[in-house]
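EI: anyone free to look at a 112-residue chain?
SC: sure, send it
EI:
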Amino acid sequence: MIVRTAFFEGVVRPGNEAAFESLLEDTLIPLWRQFPGAEDVSVLRPAVMDDGAPTYALVLATRYPDLATMDRALSSDIREATREPSNILKSLFDGRVFHITFNGDDLLAKAG
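SC: here you go
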């Protein structure tokens, strides 16, 4: 299993919260759920943070069965359809967005 994440490190610009939420809920989340081969799409928001932890507006986590499936999704028309709304979302946000792809093989389950 592979989990591709997008970290939105920073904050939504004051006064843009409603537009940010609307764009997520009405446009981007429905598109993200259409990525071919995606087994799960989660939008994570901080509930509790350690003192001194960086601030994240959200983390997007998309699970794929393998890297080849993820690569096909990232080459899909759906990905292209997310570009413009993603750029608008970033314009409502102060910070940076970066991606990390994790190997999600569950070592705890294998050890148990």
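EI: Residues 17-32 form the longest helix (16 residues).
SC: 👍
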